[in-house]
Amino acid sequence: MCGIVQLLLRNVGWGPAVAVSVAPVALLYQATLTPSKIELLQAWVPHQPWLGEADATTVEAVGAYRFDDPDGEVGMETHLLRTADGQILQVPVTYRGSPVAGADSSLIATMQHSVLGERWVYDACSDPVYVRALATAVLSGGTQAELDVVTDAGLERRQATTRVSGSGSDHSAIPPIASVSHSSAGTMTFIRALHLELTLVRAIDSDGESSVRGGPQRLVGTWPGHDAPALLALARIT
Predict the structure, then answer these.
(1) Angle subtended at Cα 62 by Cα 141 and Cα 236, rounded to the nearest 5 degrees
(2) Cβ(68)–Cβ(22) below 8 Å
(3) Fewer CB atoms near the end CB (10 Å): N or C, the chain?
């Protein structure tokens, strides 16, 4: 089924690991996506091992935030979804303009973008560009990207409604990332990339910042209807 007008970050290919800025501006397009992003996620999320006790027979979007790849190689978007029983799930994905060799197990689906053509949508936890962006946000005190939308009249700034911030210092050095591995236990996904360890909270404790250990640095966020910062991720350099 064809989605109504949606927005998708630009993306063209896998490319090498790059230094990703985390606050600046992500470029988006007004486009029709087939299937829509929520349709894609509704089909994929219920089968994931990190759901815990959440009832994901239905999911609805409550927010999303993006990181920016300044090279325009990879689109990065983290979706916040509400399940049938009210649990908030965190689902980061990357959008690419061609398939990634050897990454079939991380492929969620393909979609047609009316401006950019066919897109390959991956679980972002396996993507070095996303992992670098997440680590940079957590360890360097970064935030979500602001949003510029391409229109016939030029670029228009769109206000971000989901906001995240890292607890680290802007002087933190982020190690290079060439490859990543990840696994899930309970409602957490654990990501390793050489000297980096990250924990992604899949089922968010929306009552506030969780006591989950493993940082010390953390990423917290708010979304529409939820103004109390909630823990989203942890990171440390080993």
Answers:
(1) 25
(2) yes
(3) N
Q: What is the pTM of this model?
A: 0.86
d(CA 68, CA 121) in angstroms, rounded, equals 16
Per residue, the 3-state secondary structure of the chain, as one string, reads CCCCEEEEECCCCCCCCCCCCCCCEEEEEEEEEECCHHHHHHHHHHHCCCCCCCCCCCEEEEEEEEECCCCCCCEEEEEEEEECCCCEEEEEEEEECCCCCCCHHHEEEEEEECCCEEEEEEEHHHCHHHHHHHHHHHHCCCECCEEEEEECCEEEEECCCCEEEECCCCCCCCCCCCCCEEEEECCEEEEEECCEEEEEECEECCCCCCCCCCCCEEEEEEECCEEEEEEEEEEEEC
Domain assignments of the chain as residue spans, ordered by start: 5-237
**pLDDT tens string 82-125:** 999 999 999 999 999 999 988 999 999 999 999 899 999 999 99
Specify whether the CB–CB gap between 231 and 213 falls below 8 A: no
Output the CA angle 23-118-114, nearest 5 degrees.
Answer: 80
CA distance 119 to 128: 18
**pLDDT tens digits along 210-224:** 555 545 899 999 999
Dihedral angle of Cα 192, 60, 27, 126, to the nearest 10 degrees: 20
Tokens of 180: 């990543």
